[in-house]
Amino acid sequence: MIRSTILAAATVAAFAAAPAHALLIDDFDGGDDVVVSGFAPGPSTTLYAGAIGGDRTLEVLTGATGATSLAVSGGILNHGQSPVSGGTSTVTWDALGGADLTEAGGANGIRLDIAFIDVGLVDLTFDVIDTGMDIASLQLSNLTTGTHQFFFTDFVGTADFTSVENIVLSIAAQANSDLQIDLLDSIIVQTPEPGILALAGAGLLGIAAVRRRA
Questions:
Q1: Once rounded to an integer, what is the mean pLDDT over residues 139-165?
Q2: N or C: which end of the chain has fewer CB within 10 A?
Q3: Strands 55-62 and 87-93, sheet pairing
Q4: 58 and 34 in contact (C-beta within 8 Å)?
Q5: 105 in the Ramachandran plot: left (φ > 0), alpha (ψ -120 to 50) or beta?
Q6: Any idea what DSSP says for residue 152?
């Protein structure tokens, strides 16, 4: 009895804690070996069905010639800087035609998986632009390797997340710094529903009750 109660409570709690994958923005698993750099800055657009909208565009904006590189290879987005200077680049998903990032109200944020980053030397900015050209931005600094989650309410601006036309990821890196995004696992994530949390709590209370009887 105790074992089954514990198992049930653990299952509910794990389900409550696990992020729901509502909408994939890009996993970078396709369109490999696309490289832009200070020598050939792009923009370069590659078709990939796994990216939101069906393609992604890479572009190097600033940096000494050859100092900045941006590439997709092996399921990773790589941004690299030589010791010469810093630089900036962008990844753009456009012509989304009013994509609903909230999945009809079932999602409330994004998730980002970073495979490697030179901490403190690389800053990221997400710009979400709706079909009316309103913008909401999220600026991120001092990120570390690992998974990061951000709510739509963390963004500053008036963009309508239920009617998105463009998503732009801007990367600003200091000299001699690198960034690797694994899956720009910017998937939309959900927080646990209150009812699920209540079930998890009920399971834990059940364990306590069984222990008292024992």
A1: 95
A2: C
A3: antiparallel
A4: yes
A5: left
A6: G
Amino acid at the residue 161: F
Go through the chain and tell me how many residues it has: 214
Each residue's pLDDT tens digit, 116-129: 999 999 999 999 99
CB 48 within 8 Å of CB 184:
no
Name the 3-class secondary structure at 117: strand
Q: What is the pLDDT of residues 156-173, one digit of tens each?
A: 999 999 999 999 999 999
- Beta-bridge mates of residue 158: none
Sequence-separated (6 or more) residues with CB below 8 Å from residue 165: 94, 95, 96, 97, 98, 99, 129, 130, 131, 133
Q: How many CA atoms lie within 13 A of 51 on its CB side?
A: 28
What per-residue string of b and e applies to 23-44 under the rule 16 or more CB within 10 Å gives b? bebbbbeebeebbbbbeebbeb
On the 0-12 / 13-18 / 19+ scale of CB atoms within 10 A, 171 is buried
Closest CA to 107 of 39, 37, 29, 22: 22
**Cβ atoms of 130 and 93 closer than 8 Å:** no
Place of tokens 């000299």: 175
